[in-house]
Every structure is written in structure tokens, then in C-alpha cells.
Amino acid sequence: MAVVTPAPVTNAAHVTHRRRQLAAGGVVLVAVALLPLFVTDIFLLNVLVLTLLYAAVSQSWNILGGYCGQISLGHALYFGIGAYCASLLYVNFEITPWLGMLSGGALSALLALALGYPCFRLKGHYFVIATIVIAEIGLLLALNLELTGAALGIQWPIGDDSWLTLQFARSKLPYVYLALALLAVTWLVTWVIEESRWGYWWRAVKDNPEAAQSLGVDIFRSKMAAAAVSAFLTAIGGAFYAAFVAYIDPDSVMAFRFSLLFALPAVLGGIGTLWGPALGAAILIPLTEVTRSYAGGSGSGLDLVLYGVLIIVVALLRPDGIVSFLHRPTRNRAG
Amino acid sequence: MNAPLLQVVDVTCRFGGLVANAGINLSVAAGEILGLIGPNGAGKSTLFNQIAGVYRPTSGRILFNGIDLASVAGPARCALGISRTFQVPRSFDSMSVLDNVIVGALVRHRTTAAARRAALSTLDYVGLAARAAAPAADLTPPEKRRLEMARALATQPRLLLLDEVMTGLTPTEAQHGVELVRRVRGLGVTVIMVEHVMEIVMPLVDRAVVLNLGRVLTEGRPHEIVKNDAVITAYLGERHRVA
Fold it and tell me: With an 8 Å Cβ cutoff, is B88 touching chain A?
């Protein structure tokens, strides 16, 4: 017997539902913002920054991979472009990383469109392979170009703490709030997209492109738009990361494992959902950071083993991700 | 008779060496229900997909309301007023029933709020309002066919292409389907339906076009078609003809 629950079908009910989501987002935001009152350990604050950063970037990945269904395993490319753009502009021209973020984002969005033009003609696995290969090309270029400092990377100059240069040597707190703001922005963008024309179109493209096309959805433009937004936000994350660690080299921002690390939290938490990436990152990142630090240099593969185990467990038990535990059972199959 | 809404002029469609449609001519008047029938492999689906914009004719023209569809890409045909259903329902399974229909409604509405209102009334129209919040994946096969109809109707089509919507339905469900198609026509929508099940199509359509081996075998009113010798031969073969 189907349980009749008041579902948000009317506009009024839907608006209420959306406001509740926003309120929940606000509560989480405040809760995380208050965390540093209780956590003062530098290592733990570092883990917190990374968790928020990966949540934000995974949220960005989720826009293309989760909502539009175009699985990219090459987002390290956009992350790297953001990191390099901010670093080069700051180190060479003393341009504030804030502008570096935006230009890195714009550059990544443009590149995503240029790459999308040929790649979105590929389907399924072929698209995934193309994203991996292109990101590897980017990594090799960064390793060999003089412009990017090749394998030596780029060291940010040591200066005074400043919100203009995003350099804070004395305290990790500003980075916590910056990463939190980044997550809030990506979450809000996703929240807005969910109730926009693009949001409906992207999910339709993911579920069934032929049917979407028959309903007037321009599949190619949908994918291009999703890719551009996703790449822009990912690059912002990369620029923040560069400012945070103040030293980047190709392997520390563009390696393949970053592409995995952006996809995994969304897959673990719930692909194509509002809370999936944040939830996934909240579980995955602390777990791996802690394993990495306790296992030390000799156990550097242990975190990868952990990802593997987690993904297998989720794929077997909860293919819809951890977030599906939070939903009321709506599956009242008729008949 | 009204001016034709759709004109198919000398359309040929080849797939490599296979000629699926060979010089097909037909026209559909505004407000008409046209049945497109014929045995398997007759070229019904090919013709249907060319009108919907999935395939391009190898030669010949398709005119909708006087506009040559060759210059109108697949998704733009929907905005022009051509909508379709699929033989095997293709619902957006990760979305709710309502969200499925909203995708269609967004062609005609600028905001999602307006699209949601329109989608709800469309769901009500096809009798699926009670299932609006259910995941589309949870619908029964007949409900999925209704959802296909709702989604197509939400785009406010002038021409609705129905691909075997009655196939696999029980007689009662099919009867509901027939009533729905009649009501849709009542809204001023022109309907082309591809069907196998003759006893359902024939009472419903104003006119039927019979395809066989890629050509128009005959066309006419349903009661004429069912008595046509050539049609009986095409469907049942030479030896089943009653002398």
C-alpha cells in the first residue's frame, strides 16, 4: 500500500521545499563556521580546509558529471589552470589572486567550451577517456613549458598577511572561511541551477538524450553550458588551493589523482544531488588525510586503497550514494 | 478540408543499400487524425522519424505549415509545434513524473514556475496527477505511456506523432488511450499515429495511409482500407485472401 505523503508538486509547496533547502544550507554554513571555536589544532584545521575545498570542487564537478551526466576524469586540468593562472599573475605581475581566480575561471570555461566542441560528440566511455587524455596532455605541458616553471613549479613570495594577496602565515582561519565561502558559492550555484531551465534540461540530457531532444532540448548546448560552469568553478578552487599552499608544481595540482578526488566525493555522497559532494567530501577527505598522516611516507598508497574500498561498498549497497539514506522512501511501486 | 498542416513530398530514405521509404507522398490536414499502418518493415517508423527530425530524407521534402523542415534541426521542431512519443517509453527515470513533464513545458514557458503550473494541468488532463511526485522509474508500463503523452502535450504541439502508443495495453487501457487521443484532437491538435493494432486504430482515425515495402500502398477512410484487397494481401499474404 502506497503511503500518501504531501509531495512538493504545487508551486507553493515547491517554494517551501526550496526555502527549507536554503535554510538547511544556512544552518550547515553556520555550524561549520563555528567549528574553529572548538578545533584549534593546526593539523585538523588543515584537514578542514581541504575537506571544504574538495567539497567545493566536487560540487563543481557534479554540475557537469552529476546533473548533466557527462563524467569527466580530467577536471585536474581546470584545477591546474586556476592554480597556475593565479600563481603566474601574482608572482610575475603582483596581480591579486582574486583577479587571478576570475581569470583562471574564465580561461578554464573557454577551454572547456573549446574542448567540448569536439568531445561532446563522443558518448559514454569514449567521452571519459577523452577527458583523461586531455588532462594528461595538460599535465605534460605544465611539466615542460618554461612559462609554468616546468617541473620546478612556482613558489609564492613570502609576504605579510593580507586579504588582498590571500597570504596568511599566522593563522589557518582565513583559509577555513575562504574555503567555506567557496563551498557556499558552489552550493548556491547548484541550488539555483536545480530550479532553472538548465537544471531540467541537464537532467533530461543525462537520463535520455533522444527524448530530451524530442522535447526541444538542445543537447549540445546543454552539455557546453554545464561544462563551462563546472570548469569555471573548478578553476576558482585551483586558484584558492595555490594561494593556500603558496607553492605549486604540475604534480601537486594537475596529477590524475586530483581528477579522481574531485569525482569521488560526489559519487560517494550521491551523484547529481545537492548535498552529495559535500557529504562525500566530509567522509572521504578526513579519512584519507588521517590515514596518510598516520601511515606516513611508506603507506602512501593506503588512502587509495581506502577510496577503492569505499567506492565498492557504496556501489554495492547504495548506488545512489550516501545521501539516499537521508531521503524518505518514496519508492511506492504501483501494482 | 483545411489547408494541409503537413506535406510529405516525394520522400525517399535510404540506409546504405536499403530503401526504407521510396517516393512517399502524403498530406495531413489540420485537425485530422491520420493512421499510419502497414506490416513490419513497411517504413512507418522511418517516415515518422523523418518528420520528427531523427533522420534526414535522402531526397524529397517535408513541409510543416509551409516551412521546409530540412532547415529545422531536431530540437527546433518541437518549438515549431511538432511533438512525438516513443514506441518504447523513454522517461527521464531519475526525475519525478512532474519534472518529466516540466521539461516539455519549458519549451513554451519562460519560468519554471509557469512550466510547473502547466505541467500539473497537463498531468491532470492525461489522468496522472495522482502520480506527479512519484519517480518516473516507478510507473507501470501503461502509466509510462501516459507520461509520454503528457510530456509531448506539455510542449503544446500542433502536430502530435504517436508511435504505437496502444501496443501492449489491455483493452480497457487502450480504450482510455483512444479517448485521450480523441480529446487531444478536440484541442485542435493534429495527430499522426503509427499503429499495429488495426481494431484500435480504425475506429479512431479519420484516414489511414497504408505503407508496404517503403511505398504508399493505399490510403483512404478506415472502412475502405479494411476491405482493400492489396492491404489484406500485404498483411496476411496471398493465400489468406477470401476469394
Answer: no
